Amino acid sequence: MPTLGKVDAVVTDPPYGIGFTQRTTGAKIKGDDRPFDPTPFWGSASEHLFWGAENFAAYLPRGRWLVWIKRAVEIAAPKSYGDCEVAWVSNPGCIKAMRLISDGCIRQGAEHGIVRLHPSQKPREIMEWCLGFIDGRTILDPFMGSGTTGVACAKLGRKFIGIEIEPKYFDIACKRIEEAYAQPDLFVEPPAKAEQTTLAI
Question: What is the pTM of this model?
Answer without folding.
Answer: 0.81
